[in-house]
């Protein structure tokens, strides 16, 4: 049974403007430790790719927060939700701390997809009850 659906589109130029204003501090606010390491690696090799990576993670977390119906209110936080990927490349939602406890107690599972083009990143999330 579907618990919630969320979608988000993010202007990559807006993410770039936030990075210009706040530097790494902005990325550290949005990304988990693992995501931050990936962002740094991608940014060093190809800065534009790093910005798009950050935009897709921002968008995916927004879509997920909408699908669970919390928005960005506790226990949902930027850093407690990580967008990882399986060896196949399929994106997955990985949760930590109080958000993981909240999510698991409701017997939920999440499906997420992310995409980006030059100026936009978009995500779609479906959360379902697994019981």
From TrEMBL:
Reaction(s) catalysed by this chain's protein: apo-[ACP] + CoA = holo-[ACP] + adenosine 3',5'-bisphosphate + H(+)
Subcellular location per the Swiss-Prot or TrEMBL entry: Cytoplasm
Domain 4'-phosphopantetheinyl transferase: residue ranges: 4-125
Alphabetic keyword roster: Cytoplasm, Fatty acid biosynthesis, Fatty acid metabolism, Lipid biosynthesis, Lipid metabolism, Magnesium, Metal-binding, Transferase
Enzyme Commission code: 2.7.8.7
Residues reported in the UniProt entry to bind Mg(2+): 8, 62
One GO cellular component term noted in the UniProt record for this chain: cytoplasm
Cofactor entry: Mg(2+)
Protein name (record): Holo-[acyl-carrier-protein] synthase
